[in-house]
Amino acid sequence: MEFQTIQRPAGSEYPKIYKEFEGKLLKDGKRRKYWIQDLTEEYFEEVVKGYTEGFLYDEPMCKYSKYDKDPACLAEWTKFWMSFLKEKISLICLTKDDEGKTRIAGYNCLHAAQKNEEIKAESEAVKKFLKILHYVCDQRDAFEEFKIDKYLYGMGLYVLPEFRGEGLGQVILDTRQDLGKLLGFKASLTAYTSCISQKQAYRAGFKDYVTISYADLAKVDKDFHFPGIEEHTKDFKNMYMLY
């Protein structure tokens, strides 16, 4: 599946650096310097690898379904994420190591969701994931309620383990507002499936749109049952922000 590259306003730079900031004080008394910019093609393969080898292990629904152990699932998500990145509206957080080499610290894959869009899957695991995503999102019609024809949708926020504890996820979410406004989006919606990402979303200004507990979802459809997930997170939340 291929999605169209989103056109930027005339004269806008690409890649654009949206934020530059310092992390927390390290043991050696120094602070890492970070910056958040457009996620460009040179990082696509490394980012997709990070999603399939890291994000799918951390994200609750994937973790409790062991999607990271399913070759067909991994192959299909690889294709999906590569297609989303080619829209060229995703964000990446970068830093430099002690030798001056640029390192990836985190990223947020983003997609321009449009009315009547249909994303189809082939593997059973991805079909199950999209099925629950569609069910929750279909509880309310954001296009009609907000009078929009597209919105900025998050397809995974991931911070590499060695850079966690620096608040990078929060800054990346904050930066999404700058990107959305630049590209002319009026709203951003995202399914937040983890209690950790839900807290970050609230701090960034996102509001609840549709909330359904995983216990209630399991009563709706057998495919919506994720054994043990409530030990991690109680609710599935579709959240929104208007620009």
Radius of gyration computed on alpha carbons: 18 Å
Any idea what the shape is? globular
Number of discrete domains: 1
Q: Which consecutive residue ranges, at least 5 long each, have pLDDT under 50?
A: none
Tell me, what is the CATH class? Alpha Beta
InterPro entries: Acyl_CoA_acyltransferase (IPR016181)
Write up what this structure looks like.
The chain has one domain (17-242): Aminopeptidase, CATH 3.40.630.30. The radius of gyration is 18 Å and the shape is globular. It has helices spanning 44-58, 60-63, 71-85, 124-137, 142-145, 168-182, 195-204, 214-220; strands at 17-25, 31-38, 91-96, 102-114, 150-159, 187-192, 207-213, 235-242. The protein has 8 helices and 8 strands; from the N terminus they run E-E-H-H-H-E-E-H-H-E-H-E-H-E-H-E. Helix 1 (44-58) packs across helix 3 (71-85) and helix 6 crosses helix 7 (195-204). It has an 8-stranded mixed beta sheet with strand order 1-2-3-4-5-6-8-7, sandwiched between helices.
